[in-house]
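User: We ran a pulldown and think these components assemble together. Before we commit to crystallization trials, I'd like a predicted model of the whole complex to look at. Sequences follow.
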Amino acid sequence: MGRVTTSQPRLLLIDGHSMAFRAFYALPAENFSTSGGQHTNAVYGFLSMLANILTEEKPDFVAVAFDVGRKTFRTEVFPEYKAQREAAPEEFRGQVELIREVLETLGITTLSRDNFEADDIVATLSTQAGADYETFLVTGDRDYLQLVDDSTTVLYPMRGVSKLHRFTPEAVEEKYGLSPEQYPDFAALRGDPSDNLPSVPKVGEKTATKWIAQYGSLDGLIEHAEEIKGVAGQNFRDRIEQVKLNRQLTQMVTDMDLEVGPADLGFKVAVSSEVAARFDELEFGTNLRERVLNAVPHDAAAEAAAAEEAPDVSVTVVDTPLAEWLEDKEHVAVFVQGDGTPGAGDAAALALVDSSFEGLQIELADLDAADDAALAAWLESDAPKYLHEAKAAWHMLSGRGIELQGIAHDTALAAYLLRPGQRTYALTDVYQRHLQKSLGAATEQLSLLDDNQLVEQAGAIMELAAELTSQLQEIDSFELYTDLELPLVSILARMEAAGIAVDRDVLETQRDAFIEQVNEQERAARELAGDDSLNLNSPKQLQAVLFETFDMPKTKKTKTGYSTAAKEIEQLAATHPHPFLDHLLAHREYQKMKTTLEGLIKTIQPDGRIHTTFNQTVTSTGRLSSTEPNLQNIPVRTEAGRQIRSAFVVGEGYETLITADYSQIEMRVMAHLSADPGLIEAYREGEDLHNYVGSKVFDVPVDEVTPELRRRVKAMSYGLVYGLSAYGLSQQLGIPAREAKEIMESYFERFGGVKRYLDEVVVQARKDGYTSTVFGRRRYLPELNSDNRVARENAERAALNAPIQGTAADIIKVAMIRVDKALEGMASRVLLQVHDELVVEVAPGETEKVQSILEREMDKAIELTVPLEVSVGEGKNWDAAAH
DNA sequence: CGTGTAACGTA
DNA sequence: CGTACGTTACACGA
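Assistant: Here's a predicted model for the assembly, 883 residues in total across the polymer chains.
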C-alpha cells in the first residue's frame, strides 16, 4: 500500500550472522529452548524478522549470506582483525546452523565462502545487481552503508530486530553527514572497536566526519595531511599506515567469483510438511510457522486459497435413519462428545462418518428407542470404528451403559507412534501436524453446537486414519500400532473403569496423624528460627533462615538462590548439626505424606474406589503415565509410605490382591541388547547380578563381595542405563572421582559388550536421527547433532536410555495383552500397571489360577537371550501383596 | 488467574 | 555432570 512499484525485480540480501546475533540479543535465550536443551531464541527472532521483511518488501530474489569461520583474507593481512571478539555465548551455538537448515527448507538460497565474510558475498551480489535491481541489504553492520546507492537500500535494525531503519543515500547523509562512498573512509579513520581496528588518538567520530567532509575522501585527507594542525593532526600523520590498513580491511570485496548471480536467487517452492517438521523439531508454535510459510511460495498455497472457500474437511451430512445408515458400513469414523472421566463418564452427542465422507450427527437424548438400541448394538459390535482418543470415548459411552468395541484406529495413538514426545495430540493439532490443514475444535457445549461440527471432527479422523496408516507403514511401525497399542486401549479403559478400592478411614487416620506431626515440627522449627509465621514450604523463606539467620554455609546454587533440597540439607546437617535442620527434614517428609494422602482422599469416587487415568501418549519412551491421581508414584520406600500403600485394598466381592513384577527388567534388556557374554551368563546361571558383576569388577570371589561393593556396583549398573558419568557416580557414591573412574573402567573392561553397545547406540542414533526398541518403537533425537554441548549430551543420554526403557515398556504392554486374554471368562481383573508391575484384583477361588497366568504370560511376553523373572505376591492390600 | 520453578514421590 | 514421569506449593507477572 502506498509503495511505488517499479518495474525492476526486487533483490533481498541478508547478512545471516549479523542478523542472527541481533536476534539472539533481542530475545531472552532462556525462554526459547527445545526440550532437549538447544536454545532457539536467535532462530525464532531471525525467522520472525524474515517473515516481516518478506511480507513487507515482497522480494523476487533472496539470499542469506553467512560467515564461515574466523579466518579470512582479512585476518591474513591483519591478524588482530576481530581477534578481540570473545567466543559466541554458549546459548548461541548451533543456532546459525539451525537457521541455515530452516532457510533451505523454506527454499531460500544460503551462501558462504571460505576466507570471505558475508559482507563480501553481499557486496558482490549487490554490485552485480547494479541498477537493474531494487536491492535491499539487511544487516546489523554499518560497514554496509558503503554499498548504499539509488538502487540499494540498507535495512538496519534499530531496537531488537522488529524495527528496521531504511538507509537510502539521503538517510546516510542525514545521519552521518557523509555520502555512502565516504562512509568506509570515515570508518577507517575513526577505527572500530568491534572489528579491533585501532583508532587515532584524539580522533573520534566528530573529527573523522569533519576531516572526511572537508577533504572529500581519505585519499584527499592523506594528500593534505601536512596541513592539519594540532595534536590530532600529528597523531594522524604518525598513523597513516594503520589508517590505510584500516581502510583496506573496511573495503568490501565486490568482485568475488560466485557461482550464482542475482537472477539465480529465486525462491524454490517450499514443501509445507517439511517446514512443519522443521518447526516441530524446533518446538515452535504454528503461529510463527504460518507467518513464515505464508511469506514464501509453498506447495500448500493453492490449497490454502481453495480452503478459504470450502472447509478443509468436506463431509456430506445426510438424514438417513440411523439404523439404515449403519447397515453394511465397512469402517466408520466416530467422534463422541461428552465427559471421558473414568468411572463417571457420559456421552452427549456423536457423529459418524463413512469412507465416502457421508455422515450423521446425533444428539443422544433425541434418539428414539429403536435407533438407540441399533446404535448401542453397533457400538458394542466388532464392526471397525475409527476414533481419536478412543479411551475417552469408551468412558463417555460407558456412562450410557455401552461397552465400546471394534476400535480399529485411534488416530491419537498413531500420531504418538509417529512423533512421540509432542506436547499435544489433540485432534486439531494432529490434523494440522500430519495433513497441514486446519480444523476448528468442536464446541464443548451442546447448546452451541453447529449442525455439522461433530461430523467435521469425524471426517478429520477418517482422513487421518488413511494418512497415518501409510506413514506408520513407511516406518515399519504399523504392527506395533495394531498389535500392541490399539489392543491396549480397551484394556486400559477397563482398568480405569474398575479403579482400585481404598480404605478411606485408614487414609484419613493417617492423614490426621501426619497433620499432627507436621504441626509439631513446624512449631519447633518456628521457635528455633524465632519467626512464628515462617513458612517451611517456601524455599525463599528457608534460604533467609538458613543462610542469614543461622548463617550456615551456602549449598548448591539454583536459578533463584541456594538449594534447600533434602539432599543438600542432609549434607548440611552432617557438617553443621542443628536441630532446625532435623525439624525441617522431618517436616518435609510428613508434609509430603500429608499432601499425598489429601490428594488421594479427594479423588475417591462414590464407589469407594480411585480411578486413575493412564495416558498412552505422553512419554517419549513408550511408557504409560498415570494422572488424577498418579498411582505410579505412591510411596513405597519408607515405612510411612508403605502405610499409604496398605490403604489400597481388595474390593468388595473380591478375595485378594496379587502383584506381579518383572525383576531387574531393564538390566535384562541391557544384557540382551548388548549381547555381553558376562551379563548373559550371570542371568542364565541365576546368579545374584550385582554380586556377580561385583566379583568381576573388583576381582574377588562372588561370596567375598561385601554389601558396600555390591551397593557400588548396583548403582553403577543402573547408572549406565541412564548414561551416568564417572563424575556422577562419584557424587552418588560419595567417593573420589578418580576412584569412580577406576570402577567404571574396570567394569567396561570386564563387560566390554556393554561398552560397545552403549557407544554403538549413540552412533547409530546420530546417523538415523532416532533410536528404536526391540519392537521398533522410535524416539527421534535431532539434538544428537546439536552444536550445543549441553543439548547434545542430554540427547546422548536419552539415546542410551530410550531403547532400554522403551523395550521394557513394550514388554509389559505385551504382557498386559496376554494376561488380559488369559483372564477372559474369569472375574479377576488387572487394576494397575506401574512400569514393571501389574496389580490384579482376584475373585474368590481364582487366586492360584491368576497367579500362574501372571507368571506364565508375563514370562512369555518376549524371548530374550536372558530369562525374564517374574515375582508374584498376594495379600489383602497393596503393601501386603508386595514381596 | 495462568505460568515457571523447586522439590519429591515412583520405575 | 543419571533416564522417564506427575503433583504440590510458592512466587511472579498479566
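The mean pLDDT of chain A is 89. That may be worth checking against your pulldown data before setting up trials.

User: Thanks, that helps.
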